[in-house]
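So, can you check this one?
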Amino acid sequence: MKKNNIILLATYWNEIDWIKPSLEQIDMINPLEIIICDGCFDPNNPNYSTDGTSEIIKRFVAERDNAQMVSALRLSKINGVISLLKGNSKTKSYNILKPSRWLTALSSARKNVYRLNQATTFNYMISISKFWKPERWFMAYDVDQFYSDEMIKEFSITNEDNDYGLLTGKELTFFENFSKYTDEYEKREYNNMPHKIYPNTMIKPTRDPILESFFRRKKYIKAVESKRTGFYFHYKFNTPRFQKGYDLGDRKKPNIMKYVSKTLKTKYHPNIIKKYFNMNMGT
């Protein structure tokens, strides 16, 4: 099967409950290149998974010629700012002279080091990519985000000659179980979705793709033509793993009571979720 013209950048840390279906979904997306970071961006925690996640990723990578595994970068704040000023190796070196690049670097100095390390790690993954070049596509990837089967089919758009620069989707977020969701939590329909690569593509904290002009930075959603491709599902059940994730850096646990809850029949979930989980339970 022809691979989709996507460079997939995944980040994991202690994801043993979700790692197998997440990696299987990567195979369903069938990207041109897979770069996986196993590690924690918060320097107060070990920079590797301790629950068996690392070993599963290593086996996955070893079995695929187009995959590689890295650890998270954990820089001091000043070194993180300098790293963002330099940018990734795929951008032109003279971009360091752009006021927009300095704005990114200087504004990042106010960010928590967790968010700086996440952005610098994504830029590092871009730097080591073997296939990164304009007109291809890339996407960030989370362990608890799953795409509808119909949406994954739409990712073949990346193989076509078209004017789109961004694929979007509506997120359904599940805080309690597989039947209760809200569509009010994540309004960024471009979150972890395929973005086209341009010569001026850059990642800023936390890991937001932007397009740099000389003076300005623009989000893709405001700068390129986009196409909505359906729904994706974000499973943020209130488990120990969920709580641990919000103990990192300056992250804050969402107040789930503020969002209107709706009901979804389990048959509408992605097949990969139905394969791995008891749909009558939270996890």
Observations:
- The chain has a mean pLDDT of 94.
- The chain has one domain: 4-276.
- The chain has nine helices and 13 strands.
